[in-house]
Amino acid sequence: MEKSLTQNESVIKPPEKIRFHLLDTIRGIMIIGVLINHFLLDLELEGFQINMLNNPAVSIILEIGRFMFVFLAGITCNLTRSNLRRAAICLGAAFGISLVTYLFLRDFFVYIGILHLLGFMMLLYAGIEKLKPFSWIKHKKTAAIIGAIIFLALYFVTYSIYYKEKGLWFFGYRQFQNSPLYNTFIGYIMGFGGYKPTSADYFPLMPWGFAFFAGACLGYLFKHNLVPKFFTKPIWKPLTTIGRHTLIIYILHQPIIWGLAQLVKLIFLN
Question: Nearest to residue 50, comparing CAs of 64, 61, 63, 36?
Fold first, then answer.
């Protein structure tokens, strides 16, 4: 079976003729969750008591959403015509956010946010993509799955550094407090923390880069249509349409929901 899949991969439909609607649907759900979360945070900043945000169950849901956002970005790197173009758009938007927050919202300065992470990872993947890392492997499907498992394991092993918790083996936050990387800008980008000022939206290379590459490995299966057929079936068009435009929604959403928060404050607190 493995041999048959490997031999036939070159004749499978090219990815541009296949739309994996389920991925769009999941992205649509994720970005709606982001809008709701940021709207509630804006309301808290305006004086509303939103106790739901301190709920452990909500925290778990938000963490799953963050992971899926990065993981799906890794998958779709296999389905795009140009990762360099995607990287340029992402990094351009990221630096734009950095500039605006630095000039007008200094307390919420963002310089290592999710768009910075995704833009850098897309740029890195564009370089790796040219090397065709699976081309010399005989059992490509198996290698892609094993690669995804390895990167997922690295994500779970190193997330304790990011969360300042006691980690597994030597992968823990406390072990790195005396490291030369701790309290440096490079170390902060890597995920070791300690640097001031902190980024209001913080997505360092560890563990999030591992989540991205886990998705990139599994994306090989989507690229060659080696996934179950239900991924291609349309679900709910409005939601899948939203999922196809997550980047532009993410870029534009904050000024809009901040304005809505101001309107709610005007109505209920004045």
Answer: 36
161 CA to centre of own chain? 18
* CB 79, CB 66: distance < 8 Å: no
Task: Work out the number of other CB atoms within 10 angstroms of the CB of residue 238.
Answer: 8
Six token digits for residue 214: 């886990």
Query: What token pair was written down for 126?
Result: 């564009």
Tokens of 101: 């927050």
- For 24-48, the pLDDT digits (tens) are 999 999 999 999 989 988 888 888 8
SS (H, E, C) 246-269: HHHHHHHHHHHHHHHHHHHHHHHC
CA distances from 83 to 25, 125, 165, 234, 259 (A): 21, 7, 34, 25, 33
Integer-rounded Cα Rg, in Å, for the chain is 20
